[in-house]
Amino acid sequence: MPTFKITVAYDGTGFVGWQRQAKGTSIQGAIEDALRVLDGRDVTVHGAGRTDAGVHAVGQVASFTLARGMDAGAVMRAVNARLPLAIRVVDAETVDPAFHARYGARLKTYRYQILNASIPDVFARAYAWHVPGALDCDAMRGAARLLEGRHDFAAFQASGAATKTTEREIFRIKIFTTEDTAEKPILCARSPGVPRVLRGGEFRTRVPDGSLIVIAVAGDGFLRHMVRILVGSLVEIGRGRRDAAWLADVLAAGDRRRAGPTAPAHGLFLQAVEYPPRMLADEP
Amino acid sequence: MPTFKITVAYDGTGFVGWQRQAKGTSIQGAIEDALRVLDGRDVTVHGAGRTDAGVHAVGQVASFTLARGMDAGAVMRAVNARLPLAIRVVDAETVDPAFHARYGARLKTYRYQILNASIPDVFARAYAWHVPGALDCDAMRGAARLLEGRHDFAAFQASGAATKTTEREIFRIKIFTTEDTAEKPILCARSPGVPRVLRGGEFRTRVPDGSLIVIAVAGDGFLRHMVRILVGSLVEIGRGRRDAAWLADVLAAGDRRRAGPTAPAHGLFLQAVEYPPRMLADEP
Q1: d(C-alpha A216, C-alpha A176), whole Å
Q2: Is B187 an 8 Å CB contact of chain A?
Q3: Nearest by CB to B9, which of A9, A122, A182?
Q4: Which chain A residues are within 8 Å of B210, Cβ to Cβ?
Q5: Which parts of chain A fold into alpha helices (H)?
Q6: Is B191 touching A (CB cutoff 8 A)?
Q7: Which of A88, A90, A121 shows the shortest C-beta gap to B188?
Q8: Could you tell me which residues are beta bridge partners of residue A51?
Q9: Does A282 participate in catalysis according to the annotation?
Q10: Which residues of B belong to the active site?
Q11: Which of A106, B39, B123, B223 is most buried, judging by how many CB atoms fall within 10 Å of its CB?
Q12: Do A90 and B9 touch (CB under 8 A)?
């Protein structure tokens, strides 16, 4: 009964999201369907992050246990052969049977792409939020600092969501443009590697028309819509409609209605999920 | 009766190509439909390159004449308001009434993207040809040099195509990876600018797994499928199945059946079209 950890990339366009739904195609459902054929029985796949409809992933992590003994490379090839091209398993390894992709996750990195351009880009329309008009990146960076650390993020949770606690820790928020860095485009960013959000670097304030602005957020966990509401709020500040003091008030008040709008799903990518090394050992 | 030159970007996925067809949606048709509403009569749009179904454009150029007097910016905004998001007019100017986007073109640059990776990239699947296995970029570069200059490219034309002459001039073929350059990804490459193919630079031979290899070709004009057959032939050489001497023989023999396969449409982008400055003057 080997347990596997897989890393999955997907173009979320047209999917109902990670989680199986009564209607529509989910990422989880597509992987479970492929594994059912492989293992000859129903297999439950646990994903680290339950991404919403239209949200993409470069490095989603999932775990499952098979009845058949198979090596990780063979599982990856067999599953990829049955998945649509919009979903790819990009890495697979056998892990300790106690490993659980969701409960074991200690660091998640999300990436939100904003195309700050007067004219939308035809190739970015499903992969970036098109925001015309100037954005003050320094004002956004200054406000983002207030969100770093351990806080009650109740104001940044989809209304109606029920969770035990709304306290989370954001380790880092980094705002940069792809022109500031030698970063590979998301088009080719297949291997998540070390989350870039944790690396250093100084980035520019003025952003030329046509820039792709990236808001990278690393934390120990995220509430439903949390990254998208953070981004929607930071863009209000970038546009000059609100300031950092407003964001501090919103955070303190814990009221969803006072925060900014929810940024659209199609700009969001689950970039990487990390686990303590001991969790990954497949030796008992 | 002002004449306009527009620069158009499009994601060719799902379109029947540039040219109007009996069935399906064409880029030309979508723009003509938008202009009919604007001008209150049928408008014919001439495109510089008649791209095939699935082929993309960053800098297609087209021309047309309106009955209404309008400034170029207003035309651009009005057309964009009526076009699907997969097509955007990114630039517009008034030009000499004699300007014709196809007949006047003197330099066209095409870009072909190959994803050289063991696992296909979910975000590149409509924008790059997935070629697994090692490709020898230096062998491809050496062979590509043989194609530069004025030649009869009959061997590199879709069978059945009828043209007055199959002689064309290729000014430059450049083969590089996006990791070799600080180039912006095609995702953001909205402004065509100076075709990169004409710039200098030394590029690497060994290409790490997951690289996006770009074959950029600049010439005075191209036969039907010419870039795709050139790319298909160069990839045969990159794979080690053929060599430069074979390519020289194919070129000399002028027989389509001896050349390599036609590379898929979805890796191809019409990047830029250039005209002599005097053609663009809108002063009589």
Answers
A1: 8
A2: yes
A3: A122
A4: 188, 190-191
A5: 27-39, 72-82, 137-147, 226-238, 244-253, 277-280
A6: yes
A7: A121
A8: none
A9: no
A10: 52
A11: B123
A12: no
List phi, psi (to 5°) of A41: -165, 170
CB atoms within 10 A of CB A214: 24
Q: Positive or negative, the Cα torsion across B148, B154, B159, B163?
A: positive
Question: B269 pLDDT band (50/70/90 cuts)?
Answer: very high
A190: pLDDT strictly greater than 50: no
Closest-CA distance, B44 to chain A, in angstroms, reads 23
Is residue A86 within 8 A of residue A11, CB to CB? The reply is yes
Strands A129-130 and A107-116: parallel
Q: Rg (Cα) of chain B, in Å, rounded?
A: 19
Residue A38 CA to residue A157 CA, distance in Å, equals 38
Report d(CA B122, CA B132) in Å as an integer.
14
pLDDT of residue B121: 85
Given an 8 Å threshold on Cβ–Cβ distance, is B210 in contact with A190? yes
Q: DSSP state, A187? A: G
Q: Which of B11, B179, B185 sits opposite A187 (nearest CB)?
A: B185
Chain B CB within 8 Å of residue A81 CB: no
A54 Rama class: left (phi>0) / alpha (psi -120 to 50) / beta? left
- Which residues in B2-29 are b (16+ Cβ under 10 Å) and which e? bbbbbbbbbbbbebbbbebeeeebbbbb
What is the overall mean pLDDT for chain A?
A: 87
Residue B206 has what pLDDT? Answer: 54
Q: How far is B30 from chain A (nearest CA, A)?
A: 15
> By the 8 A CB rule, do A247 and A231 touch?
no
String of DSSP letters for B181-222: S-PPPTTT--S--S-GGGS-----SS--TTEEEEEEEEES--
Contacts of B127 in chain A (CB under 8 A): 123, 187
pLDDT of residue A255: 93
Put simply, whether A270 touches B (Cβ < 8 Å) is no
Question: B131 touching A, CB under 8 A?
Answer: no
Q: Which residue bears the tokens 């005097």?
A: B278
CA distance B15 to B54: 6
Which of A33, A39, A52, A282 is catalytic? The answer is: A52
Q: What pLDDT score does B177 carry?
A: 77
The residue type found at B189 is: A
> For residues B187 and A124, is the Cβ–Cβ distance under 8 A?
yes
For the cut 60, the answer to whether the pLDDT of residue B199 exceeds it is no
Q: What is the ipTM of this complex?
A: 0.82
**Model pTM score:** 0.86
pLDDT in tens, A207-257: 666 778 889 999 999 999 999 999 999 999 999 999 999 999 999 999 999
